[in-house]
């Protein structure tokens, strides 16, 4: 409920249209909401097609938890029940209405679910029909026009550094499944792209002394970011180390009209 209020201020079955190409990509990350710890579950796949023009009505459902942790997140003993409620609400609404479910927020003792609808007529009746099975749970809901998908793009979607840590976590999980010991140093490859040669030159000068070796400088691509840079650095790939390195590279690349494209490394056991 805090998300909706912050974005928009206080506010107290049609023909289904074809959804633009969308590949689900669910992930989670921690954030702060009104100076309180929050956990966001988001379908990152909507980023490439948002905003969806015919789904401009944002509907939120805020469920008050009965046994939250002291930090306001869901407790282990209540998680299964919250998942059940969420699944039932999502299934009921997406089957009955032309809507999508891009994510949720858990914070301050509440779980807030967010939907984008084409036609929200009688959505409240469907919510009530689901929640009648959970008389011990208090809940609230609301609706607001969000043509630009502000709630998704400016709140639910992670900031650049948060997104980078999410990508890092996926790579580390893949390495872990292959038996990698993240604490062992190895040569780590980093890839970046820049719009102009002068941007790449300035970036290289900026990171001098940070322990990176230039492996290759490419150019001539037909794309907007046509000047590539391949760096390596000898270091372990534990979560804290790789986050610090990649976030530093990504931030500096943005300062010079470039972007950080990712990293890779051999498996060490």
List the helices and strands and how they pair.
Layout: H1 2-8, E1 26-33, E2 36-43, E3 57-64, H2 76-96, E4 99-107, E5 110-117, H3 123-131, E6 139-145, H4 150-156, H5 160-177, E7 186-194, H6 197-206, E8 213-218, E9 227-235, H7 239-255, E10 258-264
Antiparallel strand pairs: 1-2, 2-4, 3-5, 3-6, 4-5, 7-9, 7-10, 8-9
Strand content: 25-35%
Can you tell me the overall shape? elongated
What is the CATH T-level topology of the largest domain? Alpha-Beta Plaits
Q: How many separate domains make up the residues?
A: 2
Question: Taking strands numbered 1, 2, ... along the chain, how are they ordered across the largest sheet?
Answer: 1-2-4-5-3-6
Q: Uncertain segments of ≥5 residues (pLDDT<50)?
A: 10-17
């Amino acid at each position: 409920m805090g998300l909706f209020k912050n974005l928009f201020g206080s506010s107290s079955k049609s023909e289904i249209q074809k959804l633009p190409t969308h590949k689900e990509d669910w992930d989670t990350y921690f954030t702060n909401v009104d100076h309180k710890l929050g956990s966001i579950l988001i379908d990152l796949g909507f980023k490439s097609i948002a905003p969806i023009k015919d789904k401009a009505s944002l509907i939120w459902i805020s469920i008050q938890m009965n046994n939250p942790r002291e930090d306001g997140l869901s407790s282990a003993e209540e998680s299964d029940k919250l998942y059940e409620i969420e699944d039932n609400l999502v299934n009921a609404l997406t089957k009955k209405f032309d809507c999508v479910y891009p994510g949720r927020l858990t914070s301050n003792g509440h779980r807030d679910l967010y939907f984008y609808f084409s036609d929200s007529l009688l959505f409240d009746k469907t919510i009530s029909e689901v929640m009648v099975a959970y008389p011990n749970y208090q809940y609230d809901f609301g609706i607001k026009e969000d043509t630009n998908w502000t709630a998704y793009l400016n709140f639910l979607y992670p900031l650049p550094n948060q997104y980078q840590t999410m990508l890092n976590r996926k790579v580390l999980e893949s390495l872990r499944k292959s038996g990698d010991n993240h604490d062992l140093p190895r040569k780590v490859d980093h890839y970046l792209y820049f719009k102009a040669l002068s941007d790449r030159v300035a970036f290289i000068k900026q990171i001098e002394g940070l322990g990176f070796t230039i492996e290759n400088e490419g150019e001539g691509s037909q794309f907007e970011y046509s000047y590539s840079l391949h760096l390596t650095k000898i270091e372990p790939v534990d979560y804290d180390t790789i986050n610090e390195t990649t976030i530093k590279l990504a931030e500096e690349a943005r300062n010079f009209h470039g972007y950080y494209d990712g990293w890779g490394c051999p498996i060490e056991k």
